[in-house]
Amino acid sequence: MRSKVSFALLGVILASGLTACSSSDDNNTEFSSSGYIQFYNGSANSAVTTMRGTEETQVLASASYGDVTSMIQTETGNTEIEFYRTDSDDQEVILETRDIDLRNGEKTLVMLTGDFDTPTFNEYRFERKELEDHFRLFAVSVVTDQSSYDLYMSDSGAPFSEANLLATVNYENFEEMTYWAPDEDEEFNEGTYTIYLTEPGSTDVIFESNTVSFQFATEYVLVIRNSSGAIQNGIEIDLVLNSSTVSNLDDVNASAQYRLYNSLDDHDIEFTLEGNEDTDPMQVNSNAKTDFQDIEFGDYRLSATSTSDSTLTFNNRLVTLNQGESKAILIYQGANDKLTSLSFDESTQPQVYDKQVVAANLVSDFVDVDLYFVRKDETIESAEYLISSIDFGEAKSVTLPSDFYELVAVFDDNEDTQILLDRTQLLGFDEQANYIITIEESLDSPTGYKISLLY
């Protein structure tokens, strides 16, 4: 199970009368004197999107795909709100400006959906209520092909045959769900449940959550959305609360994927990734990577050997692949030239406007390597983007706007002397792909080191 919790990028709230609600506000019972607004980003090819009030340019908060801002408590009445992104030149691109009527005791959830080139901003409203030991549940789909889904829930531990059909959830159609076993209160009982999705009218389950704890007496919004990033062919569920918290639910039966890069210059590698069953070995050439390989989720044993030198080998490295996860595996020579590996998760965010780039230092001669991303009008001293102090055998990430960058790898010794390991020409980070950068030894480079860009 992977139950991810992500946090929106909360902006500075400058306007008087605006207050960000924390997770403790999920049990707040005094709603009648204020209005509430929150923004959820449900556009699968979007950039980080910021919401602000136009009066005195009051920045409220930002959200990436599948994320939500804090809920803002505010005075009631009409408020003009702008939504914008920032481009590669640090210029604002206005996506939408609209008057929003913030009403007493009501929450307005603004949801970005559809293609980010022609975005749709929907407003969904509901009255906040005093709740005790109960919760309310709303549901909406933002899946890009506009599919509908039958939504089922069951008490935790119960099979699908005992699940209860709540509704058919349609694209951009925001509905409140009705509890199947109400007591004197008609709302859902706090507790643990399992969530299922099927195609409309079908009993074939296409999504099953693990146990979900609904522990707050509050309103939950269930959002069905596309997977993104390295894995793009699945669906996920976000549970949005009245705070900056999104609980992300993966299908417990979803597969995973991986790709493997062989950084060695003069050795092809044969490797196996074995779970409970034997698998056929695969081969990857020197300085080459595999395509993404689909695989069942689980814990695996990675073993690898040079095809030309049997002493260059390792066995039984643990690699865990969770549901809906994509992992990169790098093969390289470590201390004393022994064969070793490094693995890390690849980003689940869209790679259209913003690129989450992972860089790995595979050079045992140098620790704390700095990697600069230098645009055409910059030097390493003025470069805005940098990954600093990448240790040997370590991977770090940075988020960049789509643009052209010269990559410069530098090591600072103890005497403040900078050693240039390698630099590239201007390279375009403009593919909708997950980029990996490796700093590695090279037989062909004048410095003995090179930078490789993989995607």
Compose a concise summary of this entry.
39% of the residues are buried. This protein has strands at residues 3-7, 19-21, 35-41, 49-53, 58-63, 71-74, 77-86, 92-102, 106-113, 120-127, 134-141, 149-155, 164-169, 175-176, 188-189, 191-198, 205-208, 212-214, 219-226, 235-240, 245-249, 256-262, 269-274, 282-284, 288-289, 293-295, 298-306, 313-321, 326-333, 339-345, 354-361, 369-374, 385-390, 394-401, 404-412, 418-428, 436-441, 449-454.
How are the SSEs placed, and which strands pair?
Elements (H helix, E strand, L loop, with lengths): L2 E5 L11 E3 L13 E7 L7 E5 L4 E6 L7 E4 L2 E10 L5 E11 L3 E8 L6 E8 L6 E8 L7 E7 L8 E6 L5 E2 L11 E2 L1 E8 L6 E4 L3 E3 L4 E8 L8 E6 L4 E5 L6 E7 L6 E6 L7 E3 L3 E2 L3 E3 L2 E9 L6 E9 L4 E8 L5 E7 L8 E8 L7 E6 L10 E6 L3 E8 L2 E9 L5 E11 L7 E6 L7 E6 L1
Parallel strand pairs: 3-9, 11-19, 22-29, 31-37
Antiparallel strand pairs: 1-21, 2-6, 3-6, 4-5, 4-7, 7-8, 9-10, 11-14, 11-15, 12-13, 12-16, 16-17, 16-18, 19-20, 20-21, 22-25, 22-26, 23-24, 23-27, 27-28, 29-30, 31-34, 32-33, 32-35, 35-36, 37-38
Outline the structure in words:
This protein has 455 residues and is an all-beta fold. Helix content is 0%, strand content 53%. The protein has strands at residues 3-7, 19-21, 35-41, 49-53, 58-63, 71-74, 77-86, 92-102, 106-113, 120-127, 134-141, 149-155, 164-169, 175-176, 188-189, 191-198, 205-208, 212-214, 219-226, 235-240, 245-249, 256-262, 269-274, 282-284, 288-289, 293-295, 298-306, 313-321, 326-333, 339-345, 354-361, 369-374, 385-390, 394-401, 404-412, 418-428, 436-441, 449-454. The model is unreliable at 1-17 (pLDDT under 50).
